[in-house]
């Protein structure tokens, strides 16, 4: 009798634990869908919180500018430097500007910008909303007849969706400049020739795909950060988890979206 | 300090609660609550920590939903109310949070303006400024108007929290532990403020507390929440004097300072 109980119990526990986890997973998925649906429902209905959107754009954009500039310049510089030996083996150093521009426009600019934003902006959104949740500031907004979702979530998601494509384009320019510094130092290429070679291989689809990627990544970073913060609990521990969850989930989703968008773009190329 | 007699209309109840149940998982917090809050009355809900006092006012304000039972606030049944009606109803209810819940990123002025500009869109800038100055004057903190919440003391934060709810001229006030974490002198100030609000704004209030000094100073009636139900309801004297209830007596013996 004892033996039967002992052998049955762990199986039963594992089974119920798996079912519980599965149930929680689907519950969370449905909550995320409802959150996204609510964003689209509330973001484009008056009254509009334009002032707050602009403030958030400033917070998201201007405060990330130094980091984006520095990273962009180094990415362009290092990419050109590291690619040179491989091209030199084939005597194709003259292709360097084209290689730099293709890599930056098609992948590096939106991806690196988004990863930086996920770390800097996503974690800050998650922590800020999480802290507002645990200190009952969100409840206070709700009971005063205002709409905290519209004021806190819609404004932040709109801001990241608007600003990250701008930051991504800015980073592309800075990275191309970084590449130019390296190439002109080594090959003595003139600025005019460099620019001609940079834009030569790029088509309309590259610019559009890069922009769409940045928009999707920006939306993802905003919505994940807001979701994690808005539904955080368990006091200060919850705030930490919200910030961490915002970064990890956003980065993971950015990579997944990168793969999907690259595939879709490939069909149109 | 005992409270002066208030002008209460016992024929008109602004909040009616009948057979209210609320559980969190296996834990049954409220088990069949019945309660009336009358027009102009300050009702104190007393009870130990974790007995569901805050849950009760969160249900009244629509932050939580009841499992069972009927809650009617200012004529609106909370289980039948639409989102829009709830939003309108909330402008008639003031909720003062335990930790004040001031918006960290805004100055005192912005904190007070926040509910006003979103609920009363017809107001001019001049009218908004005047309302902000009036409520700050009512809580005696006019000089803090451009300060950030982090620059205020605990008592000042409580007062600003109350001012933020008063700016919409609520008919019902819900105070969640208004004197928690404050020194005795500041507690007396807050108790006086609660009574001033009742008189000046003609509000009906539910005051959640486990501080008997606060209960005696502010309450027209006391409702003692024990084991998920109101065990004793009445004036302070009726609830605490001549009682042999072993669950009530320790509250009076150990908590109250005359």
Describe the 3D structure.
The complex is a heterodimer of chains A (269) and B (258). By secondary structure, chain A is mainly α. Chain A has one domain (42-268). Helices cover 87% and strands 0% of the residues of chain A. Chain A has nine helices and no strands. The longest helix of chain A is centred in the first third of the chain and has 42 residues, at 2-43. Chain A starts with a helix and ends with a helix. Chain B has 258 residues and is of the alpha/beta class. Chain B has a single domain (11-255), classed as 3-Layer(aba) Sandwich (Rossmann fold), CATH 3.40.50. In chain B, strands 6-7-8-3-9-10 form a six-stranded mixed beta sheet, with helices on both faces. A four-stranded antiparallel beta sheet of chain B has the order 2-1-4-5, with helices on one face. In chain B, strand 9 and strand 10 (229-234) form a beta hairpin. In chain B, helix 3 packs parallel to helix 5. The mean pLDDT of chain B is 90.
Strand content of chain A: under 5%
Helical percent range of chain A?
over 70%
Whole-number tally of structural domains of chain A:
1
Q: Beta-strand percentage of chain B? A: 25-35%
Number of helices of chain B: 9
Briefly characterize the structure:
The complex is a heterodimer of chains A (269) and B (258). In chain A, 87% of the residues lie in helices and 0% in strands. Chain A is mostly helical.
SSE blueprint and pairings:
The complex is a heterodimer of chains A (269) and B (258).
Chain A: H1 2-43, H2 50-61, H3 65-89, H4 96-134, H5 137-143, H6 148-187, H7 191-199, H8 204-230, H9 235-268
Helix pairs in contact in A: 1-6, 2-6, 3-4, 3-6, 4-6, 4-7, 4-8, 4-9, 6-8, 8-9
Chain B: E1 9-24, E2 27-39, E3 42-46, H1 53-60, E4 68-73, E5 76-77, H2 83-90, E6 93-96, H3 108-119, H4 125-138, H5 154-166, E7 172-176, H6 184-201, E8 204-209, H7 212-218, E9 221-226, E10 229-234, H8 236-240, H9 249-255
């Amino acid at each position: 009798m004892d033996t039967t109980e002992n052998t049955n119990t762990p199986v039963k526990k594992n089974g119920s634990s798996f079912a519980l986890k599965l149930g929680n997973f689907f519950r969370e998925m449905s909550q995320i869908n409802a959150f996204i649906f609510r964003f689209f429902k509330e973001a484009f209905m008056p009254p509009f919180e334009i002032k707050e959107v602009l403030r958030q754009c400033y917070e998201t954009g201007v405060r990330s500018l130094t980091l984006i500039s520095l990273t962009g310049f180094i990415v362009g510089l290092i990419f050109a430097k590291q690619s040179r030996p491989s091209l030199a083996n084939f005597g194709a150093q003259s292709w360097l500007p084209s290689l730099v521009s293709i890599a930056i426009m098609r992948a590096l600019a939106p991806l690196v910008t988004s990863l930086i934003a996920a770390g800097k902006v996503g974690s800050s959104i998650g922590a800020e909303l999480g802290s507002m949740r645990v200190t009952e500031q969100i409840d206070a907004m709700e009971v005063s007849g205002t709409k905290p979702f519209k004021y806190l979530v819609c404004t932040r998601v709109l801001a990241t969706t608007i600003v990250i494509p701008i930051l991504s384009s800015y980073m592309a320019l800075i990275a191309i400049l970084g590449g130019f510094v390296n190439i002109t130092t080594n090959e003595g290429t003139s600025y005019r020739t460099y620019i001609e070679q940079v834009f030569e291989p790029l088509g309309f689809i590259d610019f559009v795909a890069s922009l769409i990627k940045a928009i999707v990544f920006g939306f993802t970073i905003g919505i994940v950060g807001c979701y994690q913060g808005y539904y955080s609990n368990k006091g200060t521990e919850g705030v930490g988890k919200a910030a961490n969850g915002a970064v990890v989930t956003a980065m993971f989703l950015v990579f997944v979206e990168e793969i999907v968008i690259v595939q879709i773009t490939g069909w149109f190329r | 300090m005992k409270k002066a007699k208030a002008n209460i209309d016992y024929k008109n109840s602004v909040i009616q609660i009948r057979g209210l149940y609320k559980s969190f998982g296996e834990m049954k917090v409220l088990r069949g609550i019945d309660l009336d809050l009358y027009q102009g009355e300050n009702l104190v809900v007393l009870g130990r920590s974790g007995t569901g006092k805050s849950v009760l006012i969160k249900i009244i304000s629509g932050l939580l939903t009841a499992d069972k039972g009927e809650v009617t606030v200012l004529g609106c049944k909370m289980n039948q109310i639409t989102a829009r009606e709830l939003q309108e109803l909330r402008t008639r209810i003031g909720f003062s949070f335990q930790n004040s819940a001031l918006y960290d990123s805004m100055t005192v002025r912005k904190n007070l303006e926040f509910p006003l500009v979103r609920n009363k869109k017809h107001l001019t800038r001049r009218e908004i400024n005047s309302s902000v100055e009036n409520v700050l004057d009512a809580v005696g903190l006019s000089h803090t108007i451009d300060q950030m919440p982090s620059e205020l003391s605990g008592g000042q934060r409580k007062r600003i929290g109350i001012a933020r709810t008063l700016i919409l001229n609520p008919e019902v006030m819900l105070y969640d532990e208004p004197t928690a974490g404050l020194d005795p002198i500041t507690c007396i100030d807050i108790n006086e403020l609660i009574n001033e609000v009742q008189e000046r704004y003609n509000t009906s209030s539910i005051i959640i507390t486990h501080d008997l000094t606060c209960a005696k100073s502010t309450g027209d009636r006391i409702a003692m929440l024990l084991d998920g139900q109101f065990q004793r309801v009445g004036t302070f004297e009726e609830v605490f004097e001549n009682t042999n209830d072993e669950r009530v007596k320790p509250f009076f013996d150990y908590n109250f300072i005359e």
